[in-house]
Amino acid sequence: MAAKPAKPAKAAPAARVRPVAPSGSSRVADLIGATRLAASAVGGVAELAETLHMAVLGNIAAPVGRPLARASALVYRSVRGVAGLAGGGLERTLARLQPLLGERSGWSGREAVLAALNGVLGDQLARDNNPLAIPMQLRRAGVLLALPDAPGAAATAWSSRVLVLAHGLCMNDLQWRRNSHDHGALLERERGYTPVYLHYNTGRHISENGDEFAHKLEALLAQWPVPVAELVIVGHSMGGLVARSACHYGAQAGHRWLARLSKLVFLGSPHHGAPLERGGNWVHLLTELTPYTAPFTRLAKLRSAGITDLRHGSLLDDDWAGRDRFAHGGAPPAPVPLPAGVACYAVAATIGKDADQLSGRLAGDGLVPLASALGRHPDPQRSLDIPAERQATVYGVNHMELLDAPQVAMHLLAWL
Q1: How far apart are CA 126 and CA 13, in angstroms?
Q2: Phi-psi region of 103 (alpha: psi -120 to 50; beta: other; left: phi over 0)
Q3: How far apart are CA 239 and CA 368, in angstroms?
């Protein structure tokens, strides 16, 4: 693959100055993150209520409406001010209690809750430097991947065949194990791959995650303790789009890991978008029809940048930079071809029991239509043209069951 000019560095997004929160998964970090999120929610609700209140007062005669509007604005400002002061005070108090509360935070379900929260609000958490924002990591068994310090050390524990698995929206790397099955563990046992699991904030833009993923892969292969003969990426849902974006930005940066990438496997990835997000985009358009429902548009716009990228499968910064990501219509995202020289495979699922069932053809796996998962598009420039022998459709399987369906496991073993 020909190297392209290096990608210019991204400008850091503007952010409010906040107290530095403890790093890592400590109890204090979790409490501070929750406190910051709660204070922000109180302020947001107050702002929504104020906007609605002002819309009502706007229809009252000025001699009466204006004094009421000034008094109401003062009340709402006070509510937001108190919430901010209380939140900041509680953050400082919690930081002082760090020695008493302990370092590790291991409450049951933490990983799943944080993954869901990051999927919905992850871009906001990252902008606010909230300790609940998930940093991108490559992990095994839910902990940061630790490679041997010296090249060749503990070589018997590391294969020259590297498998990286990227999870989907609102998920985490531990959720590759479902009903006692893990595609990564299966391919390690049966095909000799060493599986590594990507853990990332799915609420960020797909392009941002793709760019960072590309750099993570470059560092991973540079530090791998034995020479890497083959790299394979398996992406479930959004993870497949993040992998495609990583290939694009890795090529721009001239990364060497692309020369080792032999195969890309997509499991239910919405290459051409997901109808659920397109439906969500209509919600805020309907609420903007009257001044009384317009304030509730903010609720419809709470969904993260990662979610809105799924509307049409946006992979590049240019698809959203300088644009209103909630705007209806507009230019479709730029087509991004599959990486040259890489064998790409796609599994699509349908909840229908066979190919003749209309509901299954229309609904796909419940979230992603069949055509989108297989990369098919009526516009030849947007069709991914994955060869028929590298496509598979599994029946009676929903989006989440792609992670443990025996039919999917059989295809992975055959292809890899």
Answers
A1: 10
A2: alpha
A3: 13
